[in-house]
Design brief:
The protein is an alpha/beta fold and 446 residues long. The protein has two domains: 29-376, TIM Barrel, CATH 3.20.20; 378-443, no CATH class. Helix content is 47%, strand content 11%. It is built from 17 helices and twelve strands. It has helices at 37-41, 47-52, 75-93, 102-105, 112-133, 160-180, 202-223, 247-256, 269-274, 279-288, 315-328, 351-376, 379-387, 394-400, 406-413, 418-423, 430-444, and strands at residues 31-32, 35-36, 43-46, 97-101, 136-141, 184-188, 193-194, 228-232, 241-242, 263-268, 292-296, 337-339. Strands 3-4-5-6-8-10-11-12 form an eight-stranded parallel β-barrel, surrounded by four helices. The protein has a two-stranded antiparallel ribbon with strand order 1-2. A two-stranded antiparallel ribbon has the order 7-9. The radius of gyration is 24 Å and the shape is globular. The protein starts with 30 loop residues before the first strand and ends with a helix. The structure holds D-xylulose and cobalt (II) ion (CO). D-xylulose is lined by residues 101, 141, 186, 188, 232, 234, 268, 296, 307, 340. It comes from Alloscardovia omnicolens F0580. Keywords: Carbohydrate metabolism, Cytoplasm, Isomerase, Magnesium, Metal-binding, Xylose metabolism. Belongs to the xylose isomerase family.
Length: 446
């Protein structure tokens, strides 16, 4: 059986309604819209949730049962053992990618030098396992928010020593990305934001952050690291305002500081909700600016205002995401679906780690099948083309080709009676559109 008391997760098809330890929809090699499912979805496992999360909440300690608990007294021994658990987990689940923060995988020493030495030992073992299994690194990142030294941020810290330390930490993290062939490198803001504006020089902090990214880019070029850099927007939490609030804010930041060619975005469902947006809104915003990079797959809860990191099971949402991905032709040039998600505190046995990933993978595979059916019929494409068709010719075409002026439009509009203007508008039949999308969901999964 191996280290985990679970067999390799098979594709079982749709005979049984009850979800067990098998995939109903995720059939890795099945071809959908010209590509294998696994190549559309590129699932990744998040080290921090799956191997480090003890399922704590602000009111209680961890509830999780994990097979390595109580076996190791030295934290380095445990860190090294977890590599074996991790790679068996990836292989049994059939996830071809994983993601980690530097501090997820190895304990810190007193100095950066000591910490790097710990890290390198674990990275050596990860590298061996990657070679042996073929599992790839979707992205790595640096935890510049866990340790108390980052209490007021890292590259936006008001304390220059902390900025310098963060830069040193990041440098080694980029070297690890190079060594492990990371496809992307993620910068989530962590504590890059503020608690209160009275004590904050916002512009100065943001300029420091931009300079940090430029230094990272320079170093990546110097060492020949070609991982795609990604910013991961989040509106709030842990700070009350995060500088990478949402996709639009992050794009404005990249434009202001000449970073549009350097960075794309890694978008997360629950983060979208914290900004008051849908996941689809964030993905569409990034797509239209040409900066869709990768996706953190999770979902929030309508009734709870913080970052829940639930496994994504909302079929409607996975359908919208996969509709955008099919329209884009890929998640991003090197993107994937990283499960930045944890089982609920009440799902505490080790097997729940498999069950929760299966639930998320099946929800995205089903979303892909539904979105593919909608694309085949060009249902949304036709609906949108029809809605904007008045710009394809006549007065609308003069607006789009730039030949219209206020005067030419006034001349066109000046004597039009109200009845003609009302006749120029059309009902969206929005409820029927939503019902049709529901019908696609039923039909595609028959
Ligand atoms: C936090 C979050 C991070 C990033 C990586 O909400 O999403 O785990 O994905 O730092
Ligand atoms: Co995330």
């Amino acid at each position: 059986m191996g280290l985990w008391d679970v067999e390799k997760i098979p594709f079982v098809g749709t005979d049984n309604v009850e979800q067990g330890l098998g995939f109903r929809y995720y059939d890795a090699d099945r071809v959908v819209a010209g590509k294998k499912m696994k190549d559309w979805l590129r699932f990744g496992v998040a080290w921090w949730h799956t191997f480090d999360q003890e399922l704590v909440d602000p009111f209680g300690t961890g509830t999780s049962h994990r097979p390595w608990y109580g076996k190791y007294s030295d934290p380095m021994d445990e860190a090294l053992a977890k590599v074996d658990y991790a790679f068996e987990f990836f292989t049994k689940l059939g996830a071809e990618y994983f993601c980690f923060h530097d501090r997820d995988i190895a304990p810190e020493g007193d100095t950066l030098r000591e910490t790097n030495a710990n890290l390198d030992k674990v990275v050596d073992k990860i590298e061996e396992n990657m070679k042996a299994t073929g599992v790839k690194l979707l992205w790595n990142t640096s935890s510049l928010f866990t340790n108390p030294r980052f209490v007021s941020g890292a590259s936006t810290s008001p304390f220059a020593d902390i900025y310098a330390y963060s830069a040193g930490q990041l440098k080694h993290s980029l070297e690890i990305a190079k060594r492990l062939g990371a496809e992307n490198y993620v910068f989530w803001g962590g504590r890059e934001g503020y608690e209160n504006l009275w004590n904050t020089q916002m512009k100065r902090e943001q300029a420091h952050m931009a300079q940090f990214f430029h230094m990272c880019n320079d170093y990546a070029k110097e060492i020949g690291l070609d991982a795609q850099f990604l910013i991961e927007p989040k509106a709030k939490e842990p700070t009350m305002h995060q500088y990478d609030f949402d996709a639009a804010t992050a794009i404005a930041f990249l434009q202001t500081y000449d970073l549009m060619d350097v960075m794309k975005l890694n978008l997360e469902g629950n983060h979208a909700n914290l900004a008051g947006h849908t996941y689809q809104h964030e993905i569409r915003t990034a797509r239209e600016a040409g900066v869709l990079g990768s996706l953190d797959a999770n979902q929030g809860d309508k009734l709870i205002g913080w970052d829940m990191d639930e496994f994504p099971t909302d079929l409607y949402e996975t359908t919208t995401v996969m509709w955008e991905v099919l329209a884009e032709g890929q998640i991003g040039p090197h993107g994937g679906l990283n499960f930045d998600a944890k089982p609920r505190r009440t799902s505490f046995v080790a097997e729940d780690l498999f069950r929760s990933h299966i639930a998320g993978m099946d929800a995205f595979a089903a979303g892909l099948l539904i979105a593919d059916k909608m694309h085949e019929d060009k249902y949304i494409e036709n609906l949108q083309a029809q809605r904007y068709s008045s710009y394809d010719s006549g007065i609308g075409a003069t607006i789009e080709d730039g030949t219209a002026t206020l005067a030419s439009l006034e001349e066109y509009a000046l004597d039009k009676p109200q009845s003609e203007l009302i006749a120029a508008t059309q009902s969206d039949h929005l409820e029927s559109v939503k019902a049709t999308i529901n019908n696609y969901m039923f039909e595609a999964l028959k």
